[in-house]
Description:
Layout: H1 6-14, H2 26-39, H3 51-64
Amino acid sequence: MSGLRLKELFKAISERANLELARASPSSDSWLLGIIGQNLARPLLIITPDAGQRERIKKELELFSQPALGTFPALDYY
């Protein structure tokens, strides 16, 4: 669903549609998540593949918005 306008994106999220968005740069995901977090009346759950990416997104979200951020420790499956 590339090229969505933000209004259409929020509508798709409220309808619980499956979304796949391409990103232009690593920080663009944090920017978009910050805007989504500011406009939704519910918490966001963000799952990252590793702790490094989790910390990057957490730091960037603190710059882009003022959400209450919490993290869970990584599970060790190995």
